[in-house]
Structure formats: C-alpha cells, structure tokens
C-alpha cells in the first residue's frame, strides 16, 4: 500500500491545490487507474514486499 500511495503522491497529487476533497479523490483515482493500466508496475510493488500471490506448496 505504501508503494502505491507513494507513486500517486509523486505524480497525481504532487503540487495539487484542489478546492474540494473531491478534487483530491479524483486525482487519486486517476493515479490508481494509471498504475493498474501498467502490466508490470503492480507486480513490481508486490515483488518489493517479498510477498507472493501463489505461495509455494510444501512437498511432504
């Protein structure tokens, strides 16, 4: 979550001076869509955490 928030703050929310909270919400939503539209970026965030979606199965 921290990497996602950092990426949005660095681009969509950088120097944003919205008049309303909705302006910030719209910018954050644009950032989420930007990140999700990139095939590698969400995976790189997951890799950085050391977590996996499909844990290795133990062989007994």
Record keyword descriptors for this entry.
60 residues, 3 helices
What features would you describe in this structure?
The protein has helices at residues 2-10, 21-37, 41-49. The protein has 60 residues and is an all-alpha fold. It has one domain (1-49). The longest helix is centred in the middle third of the chain and has 17 residues, at 21-37. It is elongated.
Give the SSE map.
Elements: H1 2-10, H2 21-37, H3 41-49
Helix pairs in contact: 1-2
Protein name: IS630 family transposase
Organism: Streptomyces malaysiensis
What is the number of independent domains? 1
Overall number of strands: 0
What fraction, in percent, of the residue positions are helical? 55-70%
Task: Indicate the radius of gyration in whole angstroms.
Answer: 16 Å
Poorly predicted parts: none
Question: Helical segment tally?
Answer: 3
Alpha carbon gap, first and last residue: 34 Å
> Which structural class matches the secondary elements?
mainly alpha
| Broad shape | elongated
Mean pLDDT: 87
Strand content: under 5%
């Amino acid at each position: 979550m921290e990497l996602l928030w950092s990426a949005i703050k660095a681009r969509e929310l950088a120097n944003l001076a919205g008049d309303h909270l909705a302006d910030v919400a719209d910018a954050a939503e644009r950032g989420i869509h930007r990140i999700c539209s990139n095939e590698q970026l969400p995976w790189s965030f997951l890799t950085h955490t050391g977590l996996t979606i499909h844990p290795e199965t133990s062989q007994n």
